[in-house]
């Protein structure tokens, strides 16, 4: 009986130590709720967003970040932290949900439009997330990294009418950053990361197309200015 009591007390102590230390490097020195709020409000304030959004931490091990339009809330799970290497990647996943929530809060007709064209508004939200990050002082390339780590990748015969696959979304994001914020691509802090190197290997043709379109635009502008 005494042994069982000792084991019970020991298990409680170990559980307390685990909860205090947290499981992931990003939350070793700060509680996840505090970090999520800090990052979320920084994004909102830097972008001058005037509607209220709240940020919550869920202790569920399942990795997810989701919005509640009814409560104007973004919930980040404990499980998603296993994919995050730094605050910029946390800002990336929160930015995506803020961008979606901004669209959803734009009225009933916008919500209907999203229902009819989810893939179109998915790309729009991805681009908006890039803008939100840049305005808040974050590197938007982190969005490519986290997308490469977490987004689904369907086969061609598993075409999803609601969502693009991960490589398509990453390529769209790269294209947007390349054209609007090229300095982040030229001076890329994530270039040596394994996730970014993998992205480079899997999107060679898409990136070639992006560069070609950009070169043609520049050439056209140059030709028009010399006339």
Ordered list of secondary-structure elements with their pairings:
Blueprint: H1 2-21, H2 32-46, E1 54-58, E2 65-68, E3 73-77, H3 87-104, H4 108-116, H5 118-135, H6 141-150, H7 166-180, H8 182-186, H9 194-202, H10 204-226
Parallel strand pairs: 1-3
Antiparallel strand pairs: 2-3
Helix pairs in contact: 2-3, 3-5, 3-6, 4-5, 5-7, 6-7, 6-9, 7-10
Strand content: 5-15%
* CATH level 1 class label: Alpha Beta
What structural class do helix, strand and pairing data support?
A: mainly alpha
Number of domains: 1
Q: Round the mean pLDDT to the nearest integer and report it.
A: 84
Oligomer: single chain
CATH homologous superfamily annotation: Metalloproteases ("zincins"), catalytic domain
Strand order of the largest sheet: 1-3-2
What global shape is seen? globular
What does this structure look like?
The chain has helices at about 1-20, 30-45, 85-105, 110-115, 120-135, 140-150, 165-180, 180-185, 195-200, 205-225; strands at about 55-60, 65-70, 75. Strands 1-3-2 form a 3-stranded mixed sheet, with helices on one face. Strand 2 and strand 3 (about 75) form a beta hairpin. It has a single domain (about 20-225), classed as 2-Layer Sandwich (Zincin-like). The protein contains 10 helices and 3 strands, in the order ααβββαααααααα. The protein is mainly alpha-helical. The protein is globular, with a radius of gyration of 21 Å.
Question: Can you summarize this structure?
Answer:
This protein is mostly helical and 227 residues long. The chain is globular. It has ten helices and three strands, in the order ααβββαααααααα.
